[in-house]
Amino acid sequence: MKFRKLGKSGMHVSIISFGTMAYGGAQYKFTENPVSRQDGLKCLEKAVDLGINYIDCADIYGAFGEAERIIGEFIQEYDRSNFIISSKVMFPMSKNANDRGLSKKHIHESIDKTLKRLKTDYLDLYYCHRYDFATPLEETVNAMNDLIEQGKILHWATSNWRAVQLERTFGITTRLGLRAPVCDQTKYNMFQRYAVEIELPYTADYHGLGIVAYRVLAEKLLTGKYNALNLEDLSVEDKRHFSSYIEKDPLIMEKIRKLSELAQELDISLPQLVYAWTMQIPLVDTVLMSTRNPDRVEENTQSIDIKLDSEIREKIESSLNNRPIPIRRGTTESYVDFTNFVRQHPLAKVGIFPPDLHDF
Ligand SMILES: NC(=O)c1ccc[n+]([C@@H]2O[C@H](COP(=O)([O-])OP(=O)(O)OC[C@H]3O[C@@H](n4cnc5c(N)ncnc54)[C@H](OP(=O)(O)O)[C@@H]3O)[C@@H](O)[C@H]2O)c1
C-alpha cells in the first residue's frame, strides 16, 4: 500500500480508501442495491488485508446508522489505531426538525450516537456532509472545534463545499483561533472535473486542504458495464439515471468505449485505468472506492501500482476531450450552475437550503 498525508494534517491515509455508503441498507432512495452485512464484512476484511487504512462512513449510510454498526462490529477484531475512521453529519436522520443540519445541537447529539454505533471513543475525521445554509457558519465551526477539544474527533472536514464556503470557514478559524477543516470529500470523475481541477486548487493549496475523491466510477458508467453500448442501447431507466452526464456530454458513450479500448491495450480493466488516473491528479490525497465484491476490492487496489506515463495520459485526455477551462474572472457561470442545483435539490423542500440564495 502507498500512503499520503491527508492535507496538512499529520495523518497518513492509504491512497485508495474504502466507502460503505450502501452497507447494511438503502440510504434514502439512492442506493438501489444495498450490500449485506456479510458481504460488507468480507470486503472490509479484504481491504484491510491489502493495506487500506481509511474507512469512510456517514450517519445516514445503510439506512440511518446501519453502516456505522457494521464498521463498529468489524473493528472490534483489530487494533483501533490501525484505522482512520470517518463519519458525517448533516442529512436528516428523522422527522425531528433538529435531527439534521449543522447546528451545534445536532452536531453534539449526532457525534455521541455515531460513536456508540461505531463502538469507538473517537473518530479520526468528522465531515460536514454538505454546507448548511440554515445555520450560521460560526456555530458549525465552533461545534466542530468543541468536539476536537473534547477528544471525540481528531479532525473535522467538509464534503462538497464550494471554494467560497471554505474560504469563509478559514476566515473564521483564523479570526477566532479555531481548528480548521483538513480535507474536503469531493465528487470527482473523468466527466465531472470542474471542482477538483479548477475551483478548489487555489483554496486547497493555500490552506493545505486535502481532497478525498469519491464517485470516481461516475455512478457505474466507468465500471465496464457500459463499454460496448451506444446511447440508444441504454435502457429508459439508465437514460434517466445518467441524464445529467448525457446532457452535458452527448458523446459520453463513445468516450467510454475509447477508454475501455485503451484499458484493453494496457491489459488492465477500465476501473483500474480510472482509479490509476484519479490517483495521479496532484490535488487528490485518496480515492474512495466501494463494492460488495472482495475480488473487486483487490482489482481496484492493484491500480496503485499502475503507472500512466504522459503518452497514455495524453491518450486519455484526447479520448475525453473535456479538460476544464478556467472561467474568466467576472463571469457568473459557476454561480448559476450551483444555484440551479440548490433550487432543485430535495433538501430545499425541507428547509436545509434557503429559498433565497443571496447568501451564496
Ligand atoms: N460525500 C458524499 O456525499 C458521498 C457521496 C457518495 C459516496 N461517498 C463515498 O464514496 C464511497 C464510494 O461511493 P461512490 O458513489 O463513489 O461509488 P464507486 O466506488 O465509484 O462505485 C461503486 C459501484 O461501482 C461498482 N464497482 C466498484 N468496483 C468495480 C469494479 N472493479 N468493476 C465493476 N464494478 C465495480 C460497485 O458495484 P458492486 O458493488 O456490484 O461491485 C459499486 O456499486 C461511498 O461508499 C461513500 O463512502 C460520499
Question: Can you describe what's shown?
Answer:
The protein is α/β, with parallel strands linked by helices and 360 residues long. The protein folds into two domains: 3-326, NADP-dependent oxidoreductase domain (TIM Barrel, Alpha-Beta Barrel); 328-360, no CATH class. The protein is 43% helix and 13% strand. The chain is built from 15 helices and ten strands. It has helices spanning 37-49, 61-75, 104-118, 137-149, 163-176, 194-199, 201-207, 236-241, 243-248, 252-265, 270-279, 294-301, 310-320, 333-344, 346-349, and strands at residues 3-5, 12-14, 16-19, 54-56, 84-89, 123-128, 153-159, 183-187, 210-214, 284-289. The strands form two sheets. An eight-stranded parallel beta barrel has the order 3-4-5-6-7-8-9-10, surrounded by four helices. The chain has a two-stranded antiparallel ribbon with strand order 1-2. Mean pLDDT is 90; it is low at 354-360. NADP nicotinamide-adenine-dinucleotide phosphate (NAP) binds next to strand 10 and helix 12.
Entry keywords:
360 residues; alpha/beta; TIM Barrel; 2 domains; eight-stranded parallel barrel; 15 helices; 43% helix; globular; binds NADP nicotinamide-adenine-dinucleotide phosphate
Provide the low-confidence segments as ranges. 354-360
Shape: globular
Order of helices and strands: EEEHEHEHEHEHEHHEHHHHEHHHH
Mean pLDDT: 90
The CATH class name of the largest domain reads Alpha Beta
- The CATH H-level superfamily of the largest domain is NADP-dependent oxidoreductase domain
Query: Which architecture of the largest domain does the CATH hierarchy give at level 2?
Result: Alpha-Beta Barrel
Trace the largest sheet across and list its strands.
3-4-5-6-7-8-9-10
The amount of helix comes to 40-55%
Largest sheet: 8 strands, parallel, barrel
SS element count, helices: 15
Nearest-angstrom radius of gyration? 20 Å
Strand residues, percent: 5-15%
